[in-house]
Write a structure and sequence with these properties.
Elements: H1 2-16, E1 22-27, E2 30-36, H2 40-52, E3 57-63, E4 68-72, H3 78-87
Antiparallel strand pairs: 1-2, 1-3, 3-4
InterPro entries: DUF3634
Protein name: DUF3634 domain-containing protein
Length: about 100
Amino acid sequence: MEYVLLLAIVVVFLVFKDRPIMVLEFKDGELIKSKGQVPTGFQKSCQEIAHKEPFSGRIKVYKTRFATKFDFSKTIPNKVKQRIKNVFPHNTPTSKRGKRA
């Protein structure tokens, strides 16, 4: 009985664990921490945006099945959020998209 309960806890932990593909953390317009495989062009663009309009906060990028989702901290202004979304390199796989069986 205890094994079933322990297994259920482990499964719940694995399912609901926060797993972004990349994380960028800024403080006063400077990139202080990056985690994951961040494309160099995207990282440079984010640093330029932060240099022009200094902000503090965290950006998390999640990969879903068909799209990329951004999670910004509340301290990042909406104007900066949109600029960061615009410079993100969206790579769409074309191998199976639009084909029918």
